[in-house]
Specification:
The chain is of the alpha+beta class. It has one domain (about 25-300): Deoxyribonuclease I, Chain A (4-Layer Sandwich). About 35% of the residues lie in helices and about 25% in strands. The chain contains nine helices and eleven strands. The strands form two sheets. It has a six-stranded mixed sheet. The longest helix has 29 residues, at about 165-195. The relative contact order is 0.14.
């Protein structure tokens, strides 16, 4: 009888320990759901929204940085009522937002990060999550598109040709992306000085793997500009991995989850995932689902 009781107590201890471990883990994701809003480019049917909702259920993240989602109304069509939603107010359908699962019991502070708007570009969302006296700072972003690999220093950007419409657009994109570096650094500096755990995540529209491969200097590469020393020694799992979204149609990630050292210490090893859509790529499917597959990581918090 005594041995039986000891066995039962041992099993209960294991189960309880497992529960505590699971309860302390959170799944953090980022997903650009292309043109999810009232724009004419969104031609999704009810069946498309149901399909997106199935992928959202499969993702099952606790906190999700959203890009190209117009408002809470549109987010609920995909993620339902299990989340609280925090959105930027920029007058444009491609807004940045963050969804936080209600059941996780976080205290949430949300503030729009308007400093990223260097001229007709999207705001960020500055989110602070607190639970059990532990705090995590998040900056959700969707940076200027169109300057995926070109050097960002002033001399290189000024020298870019602009004789065609295509060249002019790329030059404008690189000009604006280069201007977004300063407000990004300011946000990182602030939290680094406070010795805080912080993460910057979302659609950076920049191939960090190429920044690294091209061995850019700090003034030329976005990754190099942000990555520094000490509490600014950053890490992202996407810098050394290839994207398999839509069969690897674009192999270099432009969606990233960037960790500070303190946040990295809480990263659950090998937890980085990309949720791959099942069908084969077609332009129509990339519009009805998205041209971006969601990415996620797990942290102990």
């Amino acid at each position: 009888m005594k041995n039986t009781m000891l066995t039962i107590l041992g099993l209960l201890f294991i189960l309880f320990s497992s529960f505590i471990t699971q309860a302390d883990e959170i799944k953090l994701a980022s997903w650009n759901i292309a043109w999810l809003g009232s724009h004419e480019y969104n031609q999704r049917t009810d069946a498309d929204y149901k399909q997106l909702a199935l992928y959202a259920k499969q993702l099952d993240a606790d906190v999700i940085a959203l890009q190209e989602v117009e408002s809470e109304y549109w987010a609920r069509k995909v993620f339902g009522n299990d989340y609280d939603y925090y959105f930027s107010t920029k007058d444009w359908v491609q807004r940045v937002g963050v969804a936080v699962k209600k059941s996780r019991g976080f205290t949430v502070e949300a503030e729009e990060y308007k400093a990223l708007d260097v001229g007709k570009v999207r705001h960020g969302m500055d989110i602070t999550l607190t639970k059990n006296d532990k705090t995590l700072h998040l900056l959700a972003v969707h940076l200027k598109s169109g300057c995926f690999t070109a050097p960002l220093d002033n001399k290189s950007v000024t020298a870019m040709p602009s004789t065609s419409v295509k060249e002019e657009k790329q030059k404008e994109a690189c000009t604006k992306l280069s201007k977004q570096i300063k407000p990004l650094e300011q946000w990182i500096d602030l939290h680094a000085e406070q010795d805080a755990a912080y993460i910057v995540l979302g659609d950076f529209n920049r191939r960090f793997s190429q920044d690294i491969a091209l061995k850019y200097s700090e003034d030329k590469g976005l990754w190099q500009a942000l990555n520094d020393e000490g509490q600014e020694a950053l890490w992202t799992p996407t810098a050394t991995a290839n994207s398999d979204c839509w069969g690897g149609y674009y192999k270099d990630y432009i969606d990233h989850v960037i960790f500070s050292p303190k946040a990295k210490a809480n990263y659950v090893d090998a937890s980085f995932e990309q949720l791959i859509f099942k069908p084969k790529y077609t332009k129509e499917l990339s519009r009805s689902l998205s041209d971006h597959c969601p990415i996620s990581v797990k942290l102990k918090l």
